[in-house]
Design a protein that fits this description.
Elements lengths: L16 E3 L6 E8 L2 E5 L4 E5 H7 L2 E2 L22 H13 L3 H6 L17 H24 L1 H15 L7
Antiparallel strand pairs: 1-2, 1-5, 2-3, 3-4
Helix pairs in contact: 2-4, 2-5, 4-5
Length: 168
């Protein structure tokens, strides 16, 4: 089977590595039991259905992309996670699912298209900055106290919320 061809749910093989759809990391299948696929990647491990695995990792990984089994504290196994990736994840953590989302959920107004009009009140800006600062403090405490958990969280956030963000 060609390394660049997409595979089907019946083509999955335990012990084989598959490239994630965003081309940024590889998942290796540890075991397949019925419809359940047990896998690991550079962040950790998980289980999902065959269909979900194929949706996320549709092609076999080229041999040069298959890493040895890394740990969250050993990011050097993969050179794909950059400082910009970390910054993107921190930004997503600080602003996603919070007050900014509440502001964004409103109805679009033609008044907002005029750059001379304010889009946020002073109270809204204050609340937004305080909330973001509190979330970043949480991350910094986690990084200081349990760096392995911090790294796993940041990698997970980056993978979930930032796959299409600018990386340079």
């Amino acid at each position: 089977m060609s390394e660049s061809k997409k595979v089907g749910v019946r083509d999955l093989v335990a012990g084989r590595s598959y490239l994630h759809y965003n081309n940024r990391f590889v998942r290796t299948i540890d075991a397949i039991e019925g419809d359940s696929v047990y896998w690991h990647d550079y962040i950790g491990s998980g289980v999902c259905s065959r269909t979900n695995f194929i949706r996320r990792c549709p092609t076999p990984a080229p041999p040069d992309r298959v890493p040895s089994r890394p740990t969250p504290m050993n990011p050097s196994v993969t050179t794909e996670f950059t400082l910009r990736d970390e910054a993107n994840a921190v930004t997503a953590f600080a602003f996603r699912n919070g007050f900014l989302e509440d502001l964004h959920a409103g109805v679009q107004s033609l008044l907002l298209e005029d750059p001379s009009n304010s889009r946020l009140t002073n109270d809204e800006m204050k609340r937004l900055m305080i909330e973001a600062s509190e979330k970043i403090e949480q991350l910094l405490r986690l990084k200081r106290d349990t760096p392995d958990k911090y790294y796993a969280l940041i990698c997970s956030y980056n993978r979930m919320y930032c796959p299409n963000w600018k990386r340079e």
